[in-house]
Fold this sequence. Notes:
Mean pLDDT: 92
Radius of gyration: 17 Å
Shape: globular
Oligomer: single chain
Amino acid sequence: MEFRPCIDLHGGKVKQLVGGSLTDRQAKENFVSEQDAAFYARLYQKDGIRGGHIILLDAAGTAQYEQDRRQAFLALGAYPGGLQVGGGMMPERAPRFIEAGASHVIVTSYVFKDGMIHFDRLKKMVQAVGRERLVLDLSCRRTQSGYVVVTDRWQKYTKEMVTQELLERLSDYADEFLIHAVDVEGRVSGIETELVKMLGGWDGIPVTYAGGVSSFADLDALKTYGKDRLHVTIGSALDLFGGSMAYEKVLSYVRQDERI
């Protein structure tokens, strides 16, 4: 397990939001930082943590998205090669973030149309940045049938289920997967155990799980049910973002396999 830190941007500020609350008009905030994105990037660089993700949460084309983009560029400049970036990515836009210092770009919505994966679009993304620099975000919400991929800032349901078969189909096009359990994202209410079990049963390219981590007991469960194959993101529960889990203890847990 690796700890993958986050820098979530909304309205040009570093925030932690309740994932399911995000719409075009509003979002429920858990935390709004007084620090800019570069502050967190420098912290992660100092501690040698790679593979964290910057997410631009506002809709592309809006003034708020441009504010997010400026903050993302500050972070990428502060820690070149150490962070991934997602939000509004498409072939025309993604190379600029790589040039600015992103190790990878993260894409979801662009490769889906009418709720389906469009492999022609996925191939265009690979051509734009290279498979080795592409992360596929398969963030999902739970339904009676299973976990369904959601797009467009988690507002639109697709027809694709997150399964080991889907991971296998897509793994030739990406270097990693990022999977937010949207129903528990930002709620500090515990992990989606069934999703973690399914992901832990697949042994392919790296997978980062995000959503609901609220305690070190959750990290224990993630290790157990994920068979120590999954990386983890912690947002609202981390003391950096107003939560109770100490950042330094999380690093110690992950690096030394301590049970705290």
